[in-house]
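Sample entry (182 residues):
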Amino acid sequence: MGKELCRDEEWTRVSSEYTRVAFGSLALVRKYPGWLRPYIHWLLPCCKEARRKLKEAHDCLKPHLELREVTKQKALEQGKPCPFDDSIEWFGREYGKHDPATQQISISIVVYDTISDLLCETLFNLCQHPEIFKPIRDEIVTVLGEEGGLTKAALYNLKLMESVVKESQRLRPIALVNFNPL
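Predicted structure, serialized as tokens:
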């Protein structure tokens, strides 16, 4: 997404609101028979709200995309390579004309889902092996004390915790699913 977009509070708000509304709409639409779904979503208020939120996401992303194009053109005119190496650029190179707002929201959903699954699996594994609690707690207390709080260096030095998380991931990797926006 790039530094500017991932730190844009408006984008964060819009994309998370769209995700919430879209999943709520999806749950409601699934209650209808399959043959009716392609039509009913046009009439349901929650689906209309999801489309409004997606348009809002497009509008929020538009200035970022315009600035990117100007920056890319300047770089090309100066004979420099494209200054961007992020998911927006990757999708553009791979698929040509695409919908950046929908793609970015889809990536966010996959990331949230993956992280949620990993944290749940790690917690389940910790519950199954309570003998690990004390060593992990001791490591956290020691490392945070040495590093002066929760810092990047402290996270790097939580080796036992990292091992537990990686082992949880190894024991049960997430089964990814496709997300198709309404």
